[in-house]
Specification:
Elements: H1 6-23, H2 29-40, H3 48-58, H4 61-86, H5 131-143, E1 148-154, H6 169-176, E2 179-185, E3 192-199, H7 206-222, E4 226-230, H8 239-250
Parallel strand pairs: 3-4
Antiparallel strand pairs: 1-2, 2-3
Length: 272
C-alpha cells in the first residue's frame, strides 16, 4: 500500500481546522487547543485566515507569531512569482508559476415536494408540467430525429379555428385556450405532422372527459394523426419504453404525405 505524501496529510489536517471554524462560531475548547498544538508543532498547515481566527479565539501569542511568519512567507512567494512572470520563460525550464487559490464551498438546501414547486420561486417555469412529459418528449425527439417535437403547444397555433364549421361556440372557446401535450412538426416549414396526448387518471373525471371530446373533434377536423397514450405508471416510464411504444404503435400510422413542402424555395406554391 502506498503511503500518502506527508504534505497531503498536513493540508488535510488544515482543512479539518477550516471546517471546525466554519461549522460553529465558538468551537469546542479542547478541539481548538488540539489544533493549535498541531499548528505550532508544524504537524499541519492551514490558511492564514484560519490561523488568525484560532489565535484570536485562544488569545495565543504563539499562534499570532505563527500567523506573522506565514504572512511573510506568502509575501515572499508572491514577490518571487511576480518577478518570474516578468522574465522571459526559458524553453525546457522545469519551474512553474505559483498560483494563489481560495477554498470555495457551495451549499444548497433542498427538500422533498411536488416537482412544480421548483418553479414557484420565480416568474419563469419549465415548459414541462410533469416528469412524464419530459421523458416522453425526449423519446419522441430520439425516435423522429428528422422532425421537431414541441411540448404543451397551443391548439389554435396549428388549427384555423375560424374555418372549422362543424363545432359549436363552446368547443370554439375551449379550442382558443387549449394546449396539446406534444406536436410533431416539419423543421423550418412548421407544418404539423402528428399530435399526442398523454392521458392519465385525471382524464376519467367527467369534466375532463368533456374537454377530451372537444379536443378530439377539433383535431379530427384537421385530419392530423392524433395519438392518445396512457401509461399504467406514468412516473416510472423510461425513455426506452416510450421509444419502443412509438416504434410499435405510432410509426406504422405516421405518414407525412402532402404535408411536406418547401416554403423557402417556393412560398407562393400551394400543394395540390
Amino acid at each position: 500500500m502506498t503511503t500518502p505524501p506527508r504534505d497531503f496529510l498536513k493540508a488535510l489536517g488544515g482543512e479539518g481546522l477550516c471546517l471546525l471554524l466554519d461549522d460553529a462560531e465558538v468551537p469546542r475548547n479542547d478541539w481548538s487547543n488540539r489544533y493549535a498544538s498541531l499548528l505550532l508543532n508544524r504537524c499541519i498547515v492551514a490558511p492564514l485566515e484560519a490561523i488568525l481566527r484560532l489565535a484570536t479565539l485562544l488569545d495565543s501569542a504563539d499562534l499570532s507569531e505563527l500567523a506573522r511568519q506565514v504572512r511573510r512567507k506568502e509575501e515572499r512567494v508572491l514577490a518571487q512569482s511576480s518577478v518570474k512572470t516578468k522574465c522571459k520563460s526559458v524553453p525546457g525550464s522545469s519551474e512553474q508559476a505559483i498560483l494563489q487559490v481560495r477554498r470555495v464551498v457551495q451549499i444548497m438546501q433542498m427538500f422533498l415536494g411536488d416537482g412544480r414547486l421548483s418553479d414557484a420561486s420565480g416568474i419563469c417555469r419549465s415548459v414541462f408540467r410533469s416528469q412524464q412529459e419530459r421523458t416522453f418528449l425526449r423519446a419522441l425527439s430520439l425516435r423522429f430525429p428528422g422532425l421537431l417535437a414541441l411540448p404543451n403547444y397551443p391548439l389554435d397555433q396549428i388549427v384555423s379555428l375560424d374555418r372549422v364549421n362543424t363545432i359549436n361556440a363552446k368547443t370554439l372557446r375551449y379550442g382558443r385556450n387549449c394546449r396539446l401535450d406534444a406536436v410533431l412538426i416539419i423543421p423550418d416549414e412548421g407544418d404539423p405532422v402528428a399530435v399526442f396526448e398523454l392521458d392519465s387518471r385525471f382524464h376519467d373525471v367527467p369534466e375532463n372527459a368533456g374537454h377530451d371530446a372537444m379536443k378530439n373533434s377539433l383535431i379530427a377536423a384537421t385530419g392530423l394523426p392524433f395519438f392518445r397514450l396512457r401509461a399504467e405508471s406514468p412516473d416510472s416510464m423510461t425513455v426506452d419504453e416510450w421509444y419502443a411504444l412509438l416504434s410499435d404503435q405510432v410509426l406504422p400510422h405516421l405518414d407525412l404525405g402532402g404535408r411536406v413542402r418547401c416554403r423557402q424555395a417556393a412560398y407562393r406554391l400551394i400543394p395540390c
